Amino acid sequence: MRPIHAVIFDLDDTLYAEKTYTFSGYRAVAQAHADILGDADKAFRRMCELFDSPNRARVFNVMLEEVGHHDAENTIMKMVETFRNHPPTIELYPEAAAVLKALRPDYKLGIISDGFLVAQQNKVASLQVDSKVDEVVLTDALGREFWKPHHRAFELIADKLQVSHEACTYIADNLAKDFVAPNALGWTSIHIDRPDGIHRANPAPSGGHPAHEITSLAKLPELLLNLA
């Protein structure tokens, strides 16, 4: 076994529930565009219903269709902008806050997260997670082409933390993209399989299967000790 000196986390559905961010965004959209959507509370509830339907990827389209709004393309762009720019109401999973605090004396901690930059920056600010880790790398700041599964963010954070790739581990939820780069670089990969994870059903591509799996971050300290 090899010693692990740096523990790097994904953000969405790893440290907090991504669904809560989505619903926070829906409420912001419902309030900002009530002149079109009607009663904000009713519109918010309808969007939440659509999230749990086959129309998850078309929530705003369906909302506008249902109210008979005809300038859909322009309005959807404005709704998406509201969604991405809103200050979210989100919280860390309780075990995430506890684990970050418990690990920090013994490990260097970091975050690598995909997503549109302003949205990810707002999440980091709302969660105040930048004060709980040593480095945060938001891949969109590097350029859209450097989103996962690109290696660049992993190379960058290892350099910032001044640790070798072999001494790093990455904990994340999305099998479709999260582990291709860390596996290729020699990191230890850990999948967190949350029952409410938005991307839980995604299959892993070739080279993207994690080495370990946990169902709660509360299990992480013990796993790290076993890997030492």
Brief write-up:
The chain has 228 residues and is of the alpha/beta class. The protein has ten helices and six strands. The chain has helices at residues 18-32, 34-37, 40-51, 59-66, 72-85, 94-103, 117-127, 152-161, 180-185, 220-227; strands at 6-9, 108-113, 135-138, 168-172, 188-192, 212-214.
Oligomer: single chain
The CATH homologous superfamily of the largest domain corresponds to HAD superfamily/HAD-like
Order of helices and strands: EHHHHHHEHEHEHEEH
C-alpha Rg, in Å? 19 Å
Q: At the third CATH level, what is the topology name of the largest domain? A: Rossmann fold
Shape: elongated
- Helical proportion? 40-55%
Protein architecture, described:
This protein has helices at about 20-30, 35, 40-50, 60-65, 70-85, 95-105, 115-125, 150-160, 180-185, 220-225; strands at about 5-10, 110-115, 135-140, 170, 190, 210-215. It is an alpha/beta fold and about 230 residues long. The chain folds into 2 domains: about 5-15 and about 90-225, HAD superfamily/HAD-like (Rossmann fold, 3-Layer(aba) Sandwich); about 20-85. The protein is elongated. The protein starts with 5 loop residues before the first strand and ends with a helix.
